[in-house]
Amino acid sequence: MIRASEVSVGDELPPLSVRITRADLVRYAGASGDFNPIHWNERFAREVGLPGVIAHGMLTMGLAARIVTEWAGDPGAVVQYGVRFGRPVPVPDDDKGAVIEVTAKVTKLLDDGTVKVNVTASFEGKSVLGGASALVRPRP
């Protein structure tokens, strides 16, 4: 687990690339109970104006959080995490899926010992999450 003495404002976390396939969408739908057809039915997704089947927003959010939990070394060290959903992530019906690129940077050391980390997640060079940030409590 990361130690407070090892953290400075401006530190960049190791970047993360996350691949999402249609099979991942099926597994997530089963685990979450979110069977909205925009996440599995190409025809329906296009009929409602989407570019095709899209990843669940909460799945994208959760996968992006991995950059922080892996850096912290303990998922329990993340005491707060929030995002705004910016744009959908279309997931093609192939073996390659969609790749989300995630970066993060330490932006504040707070008086209570927590660290603020801003997270950026993008697909094909465009941001998919807005205002994504986490508060992490490193070990003393």
From TrEMBL:
Enumerate the Pfam families for this protein.
MaoC_dehydratas (PF01575)
Instruction: Extract one GO BP annotation from the record.
Output: fatty acid biosynthetic process
Show the Gene3D superfamilies listed in the entry. Answer: Hotdog Thioesterase (3.10.129.10)
Q: Indicate the family of this protein.
A: Belongs to the enoyl-CoA hydratase/isomerase family.
Organism phylogeny: Bacteria, Bacillati, Actinomycetota, Actinomycetes, Pseudonocardiales
Give the top-rank taxon of the lineage listed in the UniProt record for this protein.
Answer: Bacteria
Q: Which InterPro entries match?
A: Fatty_acid_synthase, HotDog_dom_sf, MaoC-like_dom
Ranges where the MaoC-like domain occurs: 16-120
The protein depicted here goes by the name Acyl dehydratase
> What organism is the protein native to?
Saccharothrix carnea
Q: Which GO terms describe its molecular function?
A: fatty acid synthase activity
* GO cellular component annotations of the record: fatty acid synthase complex
